[in-house]
Structures are given as structure tokens and as C-alpha cells.
Amino acid sequence: MKQTDIFISGGGVAGLTAAAAFGAAGFSVLIADPMPPITDEETDGADLRTTAFLQPARDFLIAAGLWDRLSPFAAPLQIMRIVDAGGETPEPRVTKDFDAADLGDLPFGWNLSNWLLRREMVARLEELPNVEFRTGVGFASMLTRTNEARVTLTDGTRISTKLVIGADGRNSPVRQAAGIAVKTNRLGQKAVTFAVAHEAPHDNVSTEVHRTGGPFTLVPLPDHEGKPCSAVVWMEDGPEAARLAALPVDEFNAEATLRSAGVFGPLTLASRRMVWPIISQIADSLNSERVALVAEAAHVVPPIGAQGLNMSLADMASLLDLAQANPNGLGNADMLKKYHRARHTDITLRVKGVDLLNRASQAENPLLRDLRAKGVEALYGLAPLRKTLMKMGLGAKG
Ligand SMILES: Cc1cc2nc3c(=O)[nH]c(=O)nc-3n(C[C@H](O)[C@H](O)[C@H](O)COP(=O)(O)OP(=O)(O)OC[C@H]3O[C@@H](n4cnc5c(N)ncnc54)[C@H](O)[C@@H]3O)c2cc1C
After folding, report:
1. Against a cut of 0.90, is the pTM above it?
2. Which end of the chain, C or N, has fewer beta carbons within 10 A?
3. Which residues, judged by CB distance below 6 Å to any ligand atom, belong to the binding site of ligand 1?
């Protein structure tokens, strides 16, 4: 029987970050994932999405020993621009800038490619002698008691641990084994993700263009072959997303440029296209005996406002704080009850808030679209409220 302080099920971006954070804090960690991580851009199946890490994520990544590795590749996000193009023609009719300078010296966040995150995170785990990363093998079952959990992996390995962290995604096997139910909202939407090159510089502005079907978001990337470049998340109703993803490149470029309301001039595809199903989901509880759920195992939100992984980092920060405050109580009922209490209300608020923004952005009806544009104007006009919204977007409690 192998002994470890913490067993992490799932080596996605969330699980890898958790392993680095708990490992750097001195806990022994065993992390397992049946899928070996793809750590380059070209290999089929590489995750070509990008993740915008918001301000509070940085301190956590520094403590985990990850930030120095990641920062050379990060594109800063200085301004969040909301564009409403919901009029008769797809042209900007309301444009509002939220500038990070209104809150302080730091940008709102930094954008990084997911495949690169995996590469740097795996390299970081190799530096930590108290962290073992097993790939090609996953969580199979567990038995919990008040003082430990016994986990069996798919290759028959048995592990005795104080804490099982379920970071194994939206269909989390750990969550199912713990008997924790979820509430799921299927939105009928999909996200097409890709990178584009454009003539106009992005000036570190992240732009969300609203018309119908969901937001079209351009997030700054470092220049590619001497040209300004942005990562795009284009949300649409399912069949429309499938049609867009299958279009010949020239036609796709033309449609993407039109849907972007021309904010950066003509857009040219600079990567493969990928399609992601969009759901909204929340686990009824973040804990059970010796088990804590984090990231998509606990909550899934549509990709709006970069909330997904940033909420996940807040989960891990909370869990790590509790573990460090009382290392002898690692994984006990008191710690896990406190974890649930610290996170569940904030998660519920954010899942509902992102849902609301998504519905407003999906609107087909011209009257609702006009209302949405007025809403953006009104919120923006109230400076104190604008600042509060910016702070909440970064992770401050509402
Ligand atoms: C289009 C799009 C754009 C996004 N942009 C942003 C953004 O800008 N900012 C942001 O904060 N968030 C963003 N998100 C959300 C973010 O991508 C997710 O929160 C994050 O990728 C989820 O990571 P995860 O590790 O929880 O889940 P996953 O990436 O799904 O990882 C789960 C892992 O568990 C493994 N697993 C499955 N079964 C087992 C088992 N039996 N045992 C062990 N392991 C198992 C899987 O192989 C997988 O590797 C975006 C999401 C989408 C769809």
C-alpha cells in the first residue's frame, strides 16, 4: 500500500496546478491521469485554448513555483473592452473600456496557451521530489474512513491517503464515487476556439463583441511571425458552431471578421479550429469524507469573463490555506466542512452571474438586444459600480 498525504485524480491544468501548489508547500502528492498530457502545439489533440489568469492567480502561481516559468510567455490584459454590435448590421454601437489602471498598477491578468501551461507545469512537478505524476493510469475506486481514504488505481495500485482531491473534470469519477450530485444546465451552445492574426495592434485589449448566439471574445496573444495575434472564443448555438468550424478557411475568415464587427480589421486564421460544448454545472457539495472537489469537477461555467480556471485557483488557494493552518488535520471533516463553506456560496454566485451574462449575449430578439446595450451604458456610467464590478470580476467577494 502506497502512502501519500494527498492523492489528486486528474492531471488537467487544474490538477497539475494543485500538485505544484501542495508539493511546493511540502505535502507529499501522488497525481494520476489516464491521458498523458500533450505538451506541444502540433500533436493531434493538443489543447489550443488559452487561459486568461486574473490578478489574484499570480500570487498563487508564484507560491507554487510556476509563475517564473510562465511569465515569459504571457500576454498582459490591460483593458477589457465590451462592444455591443446587436443593431441591424454587425457594427459597434456601444463600446466601453474597463481599464486595469483604474484599480492599480497591475494588468487585469495574463493570457497563456493551455498546451504551454501543461509543458511548464509538468516540468515544475519534475523538480519536486515529493510529487509523483503517474500517467496512463487513473482513479478506479475508493473506500473512505474517518482517518484515511484508500484509493485503487486502474492498474491495481492501492494508495492510503489523508485527502483525495477530485480534479478530474466535469464528469469527475471521484465525485461519482463520493456520491455527490450535480445540477447541470445544458445551454445548446458550443464554443469555436482558434487564433487569428490581424493588421491592427491589440494594444493588450481583450475585446468581447456581443450580437447573438453568445460573445465573440478576442484575447491578446504575443505576436506571431511579426503580426499581432489574438485568441478567439466564438460562442454560437450548436449547429451554427459546427457549420463555422467546417467552413473553408477563406469563408471562415470573412465570417469571423464580420462577427468581430471589424474591431481589428480583417482576421486571418492562425491555428486549427476546435469546438467545445458549453454547459453550466455545479456540484451540490464540494466535499465528502476525505474528499474535496476542485475546478470542473466542482463547477463548470461558459467561457465568459475568464472565470473558469480562476475560480478553480480560488478553490485550491482555500484548500491549501486550510491545510497549512492545521497540517495534522489534513483532510479531516472539520477542514473539509470549512472548505465547502468558504467556496460554495461564491461559486454559486459566479455560476449564476456568468449564466445571466451568457443569456443576455445569446439574445436574438432586437428589443432584448437594445436592452442589453442600454444595460452596458447604464452600468458603465456609474463609476463606483463599475469599479466594484471590475473587482468582482477579478475574484473579490460580492
Ligand atoms: C473555450 C473555453 C475557454 C476557456 N477560457 C478560460 C479562461 O480564459 N480563463 C479561465 O479561467 N478558464 C477558462 N476556461 C475554463 C478552463 O479551461 C477550465 O476550467 C479548465 O480547463 C478545466 O480544467 P480541469 O483540469 O478542471 O478539467 P479537465 O481539463 O477536463 O481535466 C480533467 C482531467 O481529468 C482526467 N481524468 C478523467 N478521468 C480520470 C480518472 N479516472 N482518473 C484520473 N484522471 C482522470 C482527464 O484525463 C483530464 O486530464 C475555458 C473553457 C473553455 C471551454
Report:
1. yes
2. N
3. 9-15, 32-35, 49, 51-52, 138-139, 167-169, 173, 191, 193, 233, 276, 295-296, 303, 306, 308-310, 312
